[in-house]
Amino acid sequence: MEDKLAQELEAWGKEKVAYTFPRWEQIPDIELYMDQVIALLEKHFHKFPGDSAGKLISPSMINNYVKQGIIPPTIKKRYSRTHIAYLMMLCTLKPVLPLAVVQGIIEFQLQTKTFAEVYDHFAIEQEQASVYTMAQAKAESELLGQTAATEQEMLSNLSLKMAVLANSSKILAEKIIEMERAEGKLSTLDDKGKKSKKIKI
């Protein structure tokens, strides 16, 4: 990656690779009000994934997650460490997967791990995925650069390749959760989008 746009992409990628998700023990172990939750999450999402932070979280979204049983109910409208961790996972993954699938992935993990372990496992996997994706992008850009006539063509081909890889990964994740639900190992959603049974924390 030697050209201007490619260098800009590489610099952006290094920032994403350097970012670490707060671990369970680093999430405030105090009850927060809605505005405090929003401020905390926006601070995180401003760094990961970046400019789309405002689209990922809002008070109405959080209220809907509670009403639909996607996250546990609040106590006196206050949010705990568990709520924050749930929202970190949901908001990070929802641009890629339907909420029902993200919900299923968390529930599947909870069959063998505590919730704290599930969250920390998610954080580690997301960080490793950032490293892998940027390493893959760099390798692919070097290969594509050998055949592409221009930097624009190389980046265009790279964006397509990453998009289809993301789509293939999405399809696989959805299939696994679909199979688990068919086996009766995960809760299902009713016609209003609510869970038929609660996830145990």
* N to C succession of SSEs: HHHHHHHH
Report Rg.
19 Å
**Gap between N and C termini:** 46 Å
Biggest sheet record: none
Low-confidence stretches: 189-194, 196-201
Number of strands: 0
Question: How much of the residues is beta strand, in percent?
Answer: under 5%
Keywords: Membrane, Transmembrane, Transmembrane helix
Pfam families: DUF1836
Transmembrane segments: 84-106
Protein name: DUF1836 domain-containing protein
Structure description:
It comes from Paenibacillus nuruki. The chain has 201 residues and is mostly helical. It has one domain (4-182). The protein has helices at 4-18, 34-47, 53-56, 59-67, 81-93, 99-110, 115-147, 151-182. α1 (4-18) runs antiparallel to α7 and α6 (99-110) crosses α8. It is globular. The relative contact order is 0.13. Residues 189-194 and 196-201 have low confidence and may be disordered.
Task: Furnish the topology, listing elements before pairings.
Blueprint: H1 4-18, H2 34-47, H3 53-56, H4 59-67, H5 81-93, H6 99-110, H7 115-147, H8 151-182
Helix pairs in contact: 1-7, 5-7, 6-8, 7-8
Summarize the model shown.
It comes from Paenibacillus nuruki. With 201 residues, this protein is mainly α.
Give me some keywords for this one.
201 residues, mainly alpha, 8 helices, 66% helix
